[in-house]
Structures are given as structure tokens and as C-alpha cells.
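Z., the sequence and structure:
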Amino acid sequence: MVNILFSCLAVFGVFSSSAQDEQMNVSIVAEKEKVPLLDLSDFYAGDEKMKEEFVQQFGEALSQVGFVRLKNHGISKKLVDQVYASANEFFALPSEIKQNYEGAQLNRGYKGYSEQRVDKAPDLQEYWHVGPLTQSGTNVWPTEVQGFEANLSKLYREIGWHGEPILEAASLYMGKEADFLSHLTTEGDSIMRVIHYLPSSETGYSTTWKAPHRDPNLLTVIVGASKEGLQVQTREGDWVDVPYDPDTVIVSASDMLESLSNGVFRSAPHRVVMTQAQDSRFAIPFFFHVQRDLSIGPQEESIQKTGGEAIYPDQTAGDALKEHNWFR
């Protein structure tokens, strides 16, 4: 309960950044079992016992570590490669062209690297955002790269489709109906981000591509990571290497899921460290979001699992995003 309460207070900004920093140490643990590897096909193979065992193992991983790796996830590697080919062509364009697609829509289009930060050291990355394809007019697309819109749109749909059994497994572990989380995200502003982590030679020396942070959404699925570098912080404060395997996807619980589950699931701090300074790195996280006007307050089943008292506020997803400390 103490761990759950501490996590809750940290998520909603009760602790100062200095207090959180004191909880972080720099030790590294490189044990594969710290971030379990599961077979997603066990969930939908038609064997009820295999499905139940998968749900239990999946839930325990997101509860204890906050991260889990999945094989046999169904997302096409060929399509991921096509997306990276399109993205590389765009990222290679002159800055003045890329900047034409920056800031046109919130969480849409291009976001470039900037050193003009006063809140923290800048992250060494540039990326492209894609939002729901059913909301007419919200996405922007570059005209300079043939196939860009088609490739990224197809991958957005594919991750969303293959993410459904992941949402179902999380719902079942919470003691809810299988479609509970899917209903919350149907009209949510879920985002796919195609990230290019920059070589430090382009930005000045650094050892971190992405500073420690938690995600404010419901659940994150990372596909197509091009190399190692992702680390997650354990409850004990150790930094754990997430084993690199191009054939797996990485799933992490985020703040909204921690709130809905009253701390059953853990939104864990994570970061991306630079392994070789001269190299780039690529990854495609998909951030499942709850519809903004729906509650992310603790569910009764989860309250009963965690001592009988709600320790997270009953608020809408939109209000939580407004209050989120984006750089913790």
C-alpha cells in the first residue's frame, strides 16, 4: 500500500521534483526477467486456461514493473519498415521545409528538436504525430514524400487493431468486462509518434535521448524500436534495461490506467539512454488515450483490491491532462 500511495502522490505532483530525484539512483540492472516476455497469441488461441494465465502474467508485469514485452503481436514488420522509409525521407528534408508542418495542429504533424528549454535539458529527438483518422481535418501530411500519408495511416490503424487484445487483457485483470478500456478509448485522441532520436554530434554531447518521465495517457504500445536504449525504473529505484528485440512490442501502463486501477497498475518512470553517440535511434510509440470527457477515477473492483479506499481523484481524462506535469 505504501508503494501504491507513493506512486499516486508522485503521479499527481504532490512530491517536489527534488524529492522525486532523491528516489532515483543511477544503478542499472540488466536482468531480462525484470521486463517479462509473453506470447500474445496465448490470449486469443481459444484455450481458456492459456488466456487466463496470460491475463494473470500480463497484469502482474504491469503491476510490478509497469512494462511487458510481447511476441506474436501481429503488427507487420514490413509495414513498420515502410513507415521508417517514409519518415527517413521526411526527416532528411531541410529544416525550413519540415518547420512548415510544425504547430499547425495540437499533437499533429512535425515536432523538431529545440534547445530553447527552461524546464529541463532538451530531448534529442524529432518526431511526427498522427492522430485518429476518423476526425476529419485534424491530421496534416507532407506533400514532399510520396506514400507518407498512406504508410503512416495504415500503421496507425494496424496498431489500434492489434492493441485491442492488450486493452482487453488489462480490463480483465482489473475485474472488468473485456471491452471496458476499449469503450473508454473509442473516441479518445490516441496518438502515434514516429520518433527519430538524433545523434549527439548534431546537438552537442549528451548521454540521454529522452529524460526520465511518465506517460500521461492510458497505455502505450511501442513498435519498431531500432536499437536498445529504453530503460524503466523499478520500485526500488534501479534502472532496468528493456531487452531489445525487433520482433517484440513493448507495452507500458500509463498514468490514466494507474488511476483507473487505483494503483493496481504502475505508471513507471522510463527514459531512453544513448548507447552510441554517433548513431540515430528510431521508435514508434502508440499512446492510447481515454476520451477527454470520461472519468478516469478508480474503479470499484480495483478499490477493493487495494485496501477499500480510493487514493486517486475522480476526474475526467481532459482535466488530468491539464494538470499533468509533462516533464516529470
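The chain has eleven helices and 13 strands. Residues 1-31 have pLDDT under 50 and may be disordered.

Let me know what you think.
H.
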